[in-house]
Amino acid sequence: MKPTVRSRRRRPSGARGFTLIELLVAIAILAVIAVLSWRGLDQIIRGRQTITSAMEEERVFAQLFDQIRIDARQAASDDESGQAAITVSGSVLQIVRQMNLPATAPRLQVVRYRVSEGRVIRYASPPLGNVGELRRALRGEEGEGWATVPLMGGVGAISARVYVPKVGWTTQMKDVQSAITENDNNLKVPQLGNAPLPRSVTGLEVRIGAKGLARPVTRVFLVGE
């Protein structure tokens, strides 16, 4: 018997496999593309997080300033509160405001803004129906019956100043008291006796410094308007 001769299949002359160097070059190129893609995706994610954080801070700022605007617009007059309706003492802003509840006589309310452990907190007294309750709320600390609402975190400081006609912007409460005294004296003038007592404070400026801000954010509000 003749030995069986197996035919060898020859590759076409134009077809061949990748060499080791070619594979290494291809892998290196793919690795570079993967790194660049990852960096681009990481930048997109970081940018999205930054935008989301900025939008959240803007929303919190808007909520805080909107509440201060409402309190300032509803500020009581000086004769209703028996003193300046808006006072500034250190990092504490206090507003005596009107409070109109359905089917009840108008009441007053003492509102304070202060920073506690890096957070702006709004303290609001219960409705005050007489002068005695108002005096106790003005002299005392926030206690039972007071509503506490945290408004904004990450705050380093809160400061305010008031606008007094004929004086301008000031942080000195003695300027406010002088304006109240002058307004009271004007009531003794016959021509002005029937005129309403003017406000000693007609404007409020609030400045808040927060972490991550290059400079404090400032807003100005009208009082009783």
UniProtKB/TrEMBL annotation:
Q: Where found?
A: Cell inner membrane
Membrane-traversing stretches: 20-41
**Is Secreted given among the entry's keywords?**
no
Q: Which coarse location class describes where this protein primarily resides?
A: membrane
- Keywords carried by this UniProt record: Cell inner membrane, Cell membrane, Membrane, Methylation, Transmembrane, Transmembrane helix
GO BP term, example: protein secretion by the type II secretion system
Q: Which InterPro entries match?
A: N_methyl_site, Pilin-like, T2SS_protein_J
According to its record, how does it sit in the membrane? Single-pass membrane protein
The Gene Ontology CC terms held by the record are:
plasma membrane
Q: Name one Pfam family in it.
A: N_methyl
Instruction: Look up the domain of life of the source.
Output: Bacteria
In terms of PANTHER family, this protein maps to: TYPE II SECRETION SYSTEM PROTEIN J, TYPE II SECRETION SYSTEM PROTEIN J-RELATED
- The molecule here is called General secretion pathway protein J
Organism of origin is Paraburkholderia terricola
